[in-house]
Structure formats: C-alpha cells, structure tokens
Design goal:
Protein name: Alkanesulfonate monooxygenase SsuD/methylene tetrahydromethanopterin reductase-like flavin-dependent oxidoreductase (Luciferase family)
Shape: globular
Pfam family, one: Bac_luciferase
InterPro entries: Luciferase-like_dom, Luciferase-like_sf, SsuD_RutA_monooxygenase
Structural class: alpha/beta
Number of strands: 7
Number of domains: 2
Distance between the termini: 38 Å
Helix content: 40-55%
Strand content: 5-15%
Largest sheet: 5 strands, parallel
Number of helices: 7
Order of helices and strands: HEHHEEEHEHEHEH
Organism: Micromonospora vinacea
Keywords: Flavoprotein, FMN, Monooxygenase, Oxidoreductase
Length: 201
C-alpha cells in the first residue's frame, strides 16, 4: 500500500514524489495512531523488506515477494510512477551499523539529525562512505540532507554558520521545523534567512 500511495502521489504531482522512510522511533506517535510497537531489530527487518518491496513494485518485476514479515502474491503496480527509475528514496536516521548500511544499499538520499553538531554529521557521513565502499556503491550518488539543530529565526547567524558547515560536507538540503505559527514562520524564513543562504551555495 505504501508503494502504491507514493506511486499515486508521483503521478498526480507530475513526478515530484519522494519516499521518506525510517525504522520508526517515536513510540508516542505509533501508540497514538494505533501502530504496533515492535522490537528495534524487527523494525529494521521490516524496513529493509519494505524497501525491497517498493523497489520491486517500481520495476518491471511483478512477481511474488516472500519475506519474513511480508508476503505478496504479486507486486503489481499500475500505473507505474513517472519518476525514473523510481521516486527517490530517502532514509532517515543516523544509526551507523544498520540505518546507514541500508542507505548505501537502497537509498537515493540520507537524512541525518544535526543535533550532534557538524562533527557528528561529518563522522556519520564517513561511516556512510565506508558502507558505500563495502557495498560497491558510489558515495557521491547519495544526496545528503540534515535536519538542522539551530532554529533559523532564533539566531540566524548561528543557523547560517551551521548550514555553511554542512554545505562544506556535501550536504545539499537542510530541513527546519516551523514553530506554532507556520505561515508567519515561512514568511520570515523567506524574508530574513533565504536571501542570506544564497551566499553559501
């Protein structure tokens, strides 16, 4: 159903969908939505099977899928997404043993948390580089994105310094979290921060 939903969004948006996925960590949200909370090891097993199913459904292979957690008699997906070869896959999280390995195997982008600072992001990207080497994957084909730790409007200079540090690491996208007034937040971000980002590149 997830693959079909992303496909539908991709078709409706003219090929602009992106699948952002992770192993789940926010148990309050899971419980609030009635999603079963399973052990961490099982979450990663389910994540990898989900990635494999999506990639199979977005390919010419409409045969069965037989995993430990998911079994599909057919992986029919019609219509196929407009994005080629498929909607980009972004895996969120910075787990060095499993998450970043899954990025190297399956993803088009990684999404790291910036709360550990630029040095922590640099270290995680080095780990990703190692996984890519082991998997025979070109590290440079993976887009690097980060959730900023600095609030862009609280201290714009500190935020811009953080973004500049990420840019030097090859990060191409920095995500921010709006406050309780999203319209005003977006307006101020556009007026006060975005013009200054142009100098970073």
């Amino acid at each position: 159903m997830l693959a079909k939903t992303v496909t539908t969004l991709d078709v409706l948006s003219g090929g602009r969908a992106r699948l952002g996925i992770g192993a789940s960590w926010y148990e309050r949200e899971q419980l609030g939505l009635g999603v079963p909370v399973v052990p961490v090891a099982e979450r990663f097993e389910r994540l990898e099977e989900t990635l494999r199913i999506c990639l199979q459904m977005w390919s010419a292979d409409d045969g069965p899928f037989n995993g430990k957690h998911y079994q599909l008699a057919e992986t029919i997906n019609s219509p196929q997404p407009l994005s080629r070869p498929h909607p980009p896959i972004m895996i969120g999280g910075g787990g060095e043993k499993k998450t970043l390995l899954l990025v190297a195997r399956y993803a088009d982008a990684c999404n790291l948390f910036g709360r550990g600072g630029i040095d922590d992001v640099a270290r995680k990207l080095d780990v990703l580089r190692g996984h890519c080497a082991a998997e025979g994957r070109d590290y440079d084909t993976i887009e690097k994105t980060v959730v900023a730790s600095q609030a862009p409007l609280d201290d714009t200079d500190a935020f811009l310094a953080e973004v500049s540090g990420y840019a030097a690491l090859g990060v191409s996208e920095v995500q921010v979290t709006p406050d309780r007034h999203p319209v005003e937040f977006a307006q101020r971000l556009g007026d006060e921060v975005l013009p200054r980002l142009a100098d970073i590149g």
